[in-house]
Amino acid sequence: MKKDNDYINLRMNIVALQTKYSLTDEELRLASRLSDSAFRQRKKRPGLWRYEELIRLANKLHTTVDRLVGEPQNLLKGA
């Protein structure tokens, strides 16, 4: 099982794209269809994200799930 530290790329990519597109946490939370507490938990522990939630989040961030969880430099290619 992966530890939270293994999800550092996911966390970094979410923050980078959130900044790039000037999206608030509330906008990402709504797109993910999560409660406030569930969204906060996933921000602290990215390993808790479910695939369906990542699909919605990736769509809001104008990317794919593969790029969202991949290496940060892959995120910038073709974006």
Count the beta strands.
0
Strand residue percentage = under 5%
CATH level-3 fold name: 434 Repressor (Amino-terminal Domain)
Assign a percent range to the helix content: 55-70%
Structure description:
With 79 residues, the chain is an all-alpha fold. The chain contains 6 helices and no strands. The mean pLDDT is 88.
Provide the fold topology.
Elements: H1 8-20, H2 25-32, H3 36-44, H4 51-60, H5 65-69, H6 72-76
What distinguishing features does this structure have?
mainly alpha, 63% helix, 434 Repressor (Amino-terminal Domain), 6 helices, 79 residues, 0% strand
Summarize, please.
The chain has six helices and no strands. The chain has 79 residues and is mainly α.
